[in-house]
Automatic annotation (TrEMBL):
This is Polysaccharide deacetylase. The keyword Protein biosynthesis does not apply. GO terms for molecular function: hydrolase activity, acting on carbon-nitrogen (but not peptide) bonds. Keywords: Signal. CDD domains: CE4_NodB_like_5s_6s (cd10918). Pfam families: Polysacc_deac_1 (PF01522). GO terms for biological process: carbohydrate metabolic process. One of its GO terms (cellular component) is extracellular region. Residues 79-322 form the NodB homology domain. It comes from Marinimicrobium koreense. It is found in: Secreted. The keyword Signal applies.
Length: 322
């Protein structure tokens, strides 16, 4: 029923914008698929199915074009949908980009500006690597990591996705800097660095996507720090303002869209984003009303393989039922 009912199928529903939040696109037989935290990946064939379904039921739009139209009081599509990718993963270039071109589908890619073209790994992925690659013993040697492990007490060699998610959730009680310091203290690279491989795309790949005319680049900060009260104002300016400058310098484009890492931000961060960007997206789940949408706190719907692997599940997800 979910693939035939729901607000995305309702012909009388009007004046709304769906924004879909993707992270990674990987085939199941790619080693990186098994080393990703739960809720972060779709398979290429699933992503292509999503785009084809969206084209059947929505005006598939560039988020930047929708924002421009709203700013200029121009007519907005009755049922619009914008596709977004967070972080700047290499697999977005390898697997998502060819599908975007094949389907002539626009998308926005929110890049972590200071990490593009580097060997940077996000700390949740390091945790996944450690837990699946015999690094649990080393994690117990650090107080911060040990306290997170106590939430699920995994045994090396028999780790579930739910246990990984539990550890990552527990670690979010700490600052990003404290987590990275803890990981460096145990020498995480010797346990899983080789297995994780290259995570992020380079500038050449990012600019190729941008140059296609299908992909708009936005900022996802410089280092992916959560913009909470633990971040000083100078550091917040570095994350929000300097990332915009760097992306503009590297792409030659105006960078007008922003994405809050992990969906976390305080009032100071929101005010700074309002000053420097035309719009911003959150991780809060919802559908945006054309008339009343807050351009700097736009809601999105997170999409991943576990909840959207077929048409029925995907329809239920974007309808708000799953």
């Amino acid at each position: 029923m979910a693939n035939t009912l729901g607000p995305h199928r309702n012909p009388v529903l009007s004046g709304r914008l769906w924004i879909l939040m993707y992270h990674r696109v990987l085939p199941r037989d790619d080693r990186r698929f098994s080393l990703e935290e739960p809720g972060m990946v779709v398979q290429p064939e699933t992503f292509q199915m999503h785009l084809r379904e969206l084209k059947r039921h929505f005006d598939l739009v560039s988020l930047a074009d929708w924002v421009n139209a709203k700013d200029n009081d121009e007519p907005l599509p009755q049922k619009a949908c914008a596709v977004t990718f967070d972080d700047g993963w290499l697999d977005n270039y390898e697997y998502a980009f060819p599908i975007l071109k094949e389907e002539s589908a626009p998308a926005t890619l929110f890049a972590v500006a200071d990490k593009i073209g580097t060997d940077f790994q996000f700390w949740p992925n390091i945790i996944v690597g450690l837990m699946f690659c015999d690094g649990i013993g080393a994690m117990r040697d650090n107080a911060v990591l040990r306290s997170a492990l106590s939430s699920c007490d995994p045994v090396s060699g028999r780790v579930s996705g739910d246990q990984v998610a539990s550890v990552i959730k527990a670690l979010k009680a700490h600052t990003d800097l404290d987590i990275f310091h803890a990981l460096e203290s145990i020498g995480w690279r010797k346990y899983c660095g080789e297995h994780l491989g290259c995570a992020l795309m380079g500038w050449q790949q990012l600019n190729e996507m941008r140059g296609s005319g299908l992909v708009t680049v936005g900022s996802h900060t410089n280092t992916h720090r959560r913009l909470t009260s633990s971040v000083t104002l100078p550091d917040m300016e570095y994350e929000i303002v300097d990332s915009k400058r760097k992306l503009q310098r590297e792409t030659g484009d105006s960078i007008d869209l922003f994405c809050f890492p992990n969906g976390d931000y305080n009032q100071e961060a929101l005010d700074m984003v309002r000053t420097h960007y035309r719009a911003a997206v959150t991780t809060r789940r919802g559908i945006n009303l054309n008339r009343s949408a807050n351009r700097h706190e736009l809601t999105r719907i997170g999409i991943h393989e576990d909840i959207a692997s077929n048409r029925r599940l995907f329809g239920a997800r974007i309808s708000g039922w799953v």
